[in-house]
């Protein structure tokens, strides 16, 4: 496949990329996911749950570090055993946690998540309020944010104050320092006051992003029911300053749209066990390559190679349970790509 021929999508990311110019800072929530110990059941029918670290921005930070890149996490957890556990997981995975804060008055967020037999994901959140919602602008590590070449974030941190103001301030700091803004809305309708509030909140920072990654379902939601496979519909979400819009299609791969070209990249086929964290693995895989050379956004061949590598990151993740536990190392991704190459030759 393209990812293994010609240009190496991991060139410059050999695990020694620890200088400031390669830093990806991920802003937002980190929490505990509780995943059923058996597959294909509803939360109510699950006999037991296994705990796993999660939260989309934190997943991306760990994903980048696992691949040998340089990442940091900025967010807040409770000053409790789960919060300490999450901080330790970041440390174990060599993620810079200097921007992490601990709240003595609020608990670390919890989320129960399952993939039911009918293919629908089911969530149950415990955050009223959880510590991640209480991060204040004054608690931001400004020096760390100014070093970021890329700031990656979602929309959950936009739902409530004071975290929303902290989020907007972090974006401003990075942009002022010349950084690149990466946005994955990561829609969780249950957490917003209403669907309309979710649309308005998600779109409130839309035009500031340099790169946006959305799912098919998110396109349908944001366009109020329009066809996510229609390029004209997708282009309604393309703003003038956007450099890359990625549409993920789960097991089918992804599409990409830039100001000058568009196309699609096939998935890497595997037998899924748990899809939790697959999108975050994809984002981490792509940003880990992008941060070493932002110019690849103008080179379609190299962009497709990077996206194929990102698809492979997602593929490895769905073969394991849990988000952070399932995130791949560089060797695991290259191994699955090599298997695909062998299978294709056969």
Automatic annotation (TrEMBL):
Any one GO biological process: fructose metabolic process
Q: Where is the Carbohydrate kinase PfkB domain?
A: 22-329
Its annotated pathway reads: Glycan biosynthesis; starch biosynthesis
Q: Do you know which InterPro entries this protein is assigned to?
A: Carboh/pur_kinase_PfkB_CS (IPR002173), PfkB_Carbo_kinase (IPR050306), PfkB_dom (IPR011611), Ribo/fructo_kinase (IPR002139), Ribokinase-like (IPR029056)
A GO term from the CC aspect: cytosol
Which reaction is this enzyme known to catalyze? Answer: D-fructose + ATP = D-fructose 6-phosphate + ADP + H(+)
CDD domains per the UniProt record, alphabetical: bac_FRK
Recorded GO MF terms: ATP binding; fructokinase activity
Q: Which UniProt keywords apply?
A: ATP-binding, Carbohydrate metabolism, Kinase, Nucleotide-binding, Transferase
Q: What is the enzyme's class at the highest EC level?
A: transferase
- Enzyme Commission number(s) from the entry: 2.7.1.4
Q: Is Translocase tagged as a keyword?
A: no
Family the entry assigns? Belongs to the carbohydrate kinase PfkB family.
**What functional role does this protein have?**
May play an important role in maintaining the flux of carbon towards starch formation.
Q: Return the protein name.
A: fructokinase
The encoding gene is: LOC110782439
């Amino acid at each position: 496949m393209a990812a293994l021929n010609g240009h190496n999508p991991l060139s410059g990311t050999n695990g020694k990329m620890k200088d400031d110019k390669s830093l990806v800072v991920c802003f937002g929530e980190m929490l505990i996911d509780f995943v059923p110990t058996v597959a294909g059941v509803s939360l109510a029918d699950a006999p037991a749950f296994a705990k796993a670290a999660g939260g989309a921005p934190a997943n991306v930070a760990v994903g980048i570090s696992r691949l040998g890149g340089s990442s940091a996490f900025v967010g807040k957890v409770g000053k409790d055993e789960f919060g300490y556990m999450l901080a330790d997981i970041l440390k174990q995975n060599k993620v810079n946690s200097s921007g992490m804060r601990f709240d003595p008055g609020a608990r670390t967020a919890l989320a129960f998540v399952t993939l039911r037999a009918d293919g629908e994901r089911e969530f149950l959140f415990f955050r009223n309020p959880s510590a991640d919602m209480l991060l204040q602008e004054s608690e931001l590590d400004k020096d760390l944010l100014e070093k970021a070449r890329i700031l990656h974030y979602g929309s959950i941190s936009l739902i409530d104050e004071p975290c929303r103001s902290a989020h907007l301030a972090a974006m401003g700091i990075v942009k002022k320092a010349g950084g690149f803004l990466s946005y994955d809305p990561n829609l969780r309708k249950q957490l917003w006051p209403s669907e309309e509030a979710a649309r308005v909140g998600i779109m409130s920072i839309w035009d500031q992003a340099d790169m946006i990654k959305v799912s098919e379902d998110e396109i349908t939601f944001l366009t109020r029911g329009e066809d996510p496979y229609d390029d004209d519909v997708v282009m309604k979400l393309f703003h003038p300053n956007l450099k890359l819009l990625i549409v993920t299609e789960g097991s089918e791969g992804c599409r990409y749209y830039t100001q000058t070209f568009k196309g699609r990249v096939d998935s890497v086929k595997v037998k899924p066990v748990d899809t939790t964290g697959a999108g975050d693995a994809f984002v981490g895989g792509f940003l880990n390559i992008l941060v070493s050379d932002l110019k690849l956004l103008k080179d379609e061949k190299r962009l497709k190679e990077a996206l194929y590598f990102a698809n492979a990151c997602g593929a490895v993740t769905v073969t394991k349970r849990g988000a952070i536990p399932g995130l791949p190392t560089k060797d695991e991704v290259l191994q699955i790509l090599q298997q695909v190459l062998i299978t294709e030759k056969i």
